[in-house]
Amino acid sequence: MEATDPLLPPGDRARLNEIVDGLVDRRRRIAALQGEEAQLLHAAQEYALAQRRALDARPDAPDDIALRSIAAEIGAATVQSDRTVHARMGDAAALVERFPITLAALRTGRISRAHAAVIADAGANIDASEARADYEAAVLPVAERETVGRLRPVARRLADRCHPVAVDERHRQARHERRVWVSDRDDGMAELGLTGPAHLVHGAFDRLTQLGAAVIDVRRRDGARSVEPPSKPDTRRLDEVRVDVALDLLLTGHATSEATAASIPEAEVFRARIQVTIPVRTLIGAADRPADLAGYGHLDAATARTLAAAAPGWDRLFTHPVTGAVLAVDRYRPTNEQRRLLRARDEHCRFPGCRQPTSRCDIDHTIAREHDGPTAVTNLAHLCRRHHTLKHHSAWRVRQRPDGTLQWTSPTGREYDDRPARTLAFEPAPF
Q1: Which of 13, 65, 92, 185 is the most exposed place for a label (fewest CB within 10 A)?
Q2: 364 near 382, Cβ under 8 Å?
Q3: In the chain, where the domains are located
Q4: Side-chain half-sphere CA neighbours of 44 within 13 A
């Protein structure tokens, strides 16, 4: 059912505009103050380093005693842990000394502190100042229009392109750092962490999500068929079921142990799903330009070729040479071409800021079928259930441009562009 009124009544619209404008202004002012705070924290660290040099004559003093003392002073005055202050002084120093363009954007309120942290973190390994400046110039326009979650993979891709060491070499070095660890928490809980190749970790998470969703489906079907209500209803959320399934797999080898309670048949097979986009010259071995792992960033060429060799089939993308927008999809054994093109183009829900992957989204007609909207790629886009419902049952409106950009109009008349993921960070390949 479509909402009939595209905008709020003038009086309501004016009030909501006033509220939204006020929040935008406050966020901008908060960001500017956080930029000033970063400079003050950096000044505090500089002062502490100067004090440390003055204490060099005391061999019994720890190397960072001056930093500890200043952090404790600031922490006591601002009611924060001195360890937190110490860490934030280091983050501030990295921002002020290595990313001045980003700091300026923060000082003027164009980005938030969280955006600045993502930019600094992704570019931390770029040592050359000119390369860092190129990286900042490329990433800041994205940061100004995208959420932190969407910025993160784009920032990694752009940082990879500016890094002097090739992705393949850095991946080989990073593989030596893979590990598993345990951190104890309160109330009888602990955390199990794992660092490994991105495509395998993303694939493992996707498989756990599929298994968890299957457990919930079985639970619902059994509940619907049951005459007697269960003595202990299973009210676990997907996150909880994912954890239970992961522990079952690690401890018993399958997701059907007693701990899972309601589970899937042992014979049920789930394959992990990941989306990797590989330049054709990399695929045939004529170049080593990195591939893109959807939702993460760059993937080294050797791993990408290994994945392509094991895949039962693959899609061939035709992209715009300037914008990087996906124009068409071809496949040696074509099936559901439009769905494949949309998955390649969208990568996630197309409402501004949403990161739900396409596997958990509906394919929506931008102009509804009942309004003569065609079933064409230029009239289709992935929307998660939350934003699909919002589109059809509220005053939000959307139209789609030929390049796949969705122009959303809010109930107050504000317009927000959502560009396809692959056009956010694009560099034409030399041929």
Answers
A1: 185
A2: yes
A3: 18-167, 197-260, 312-423
A4: 24
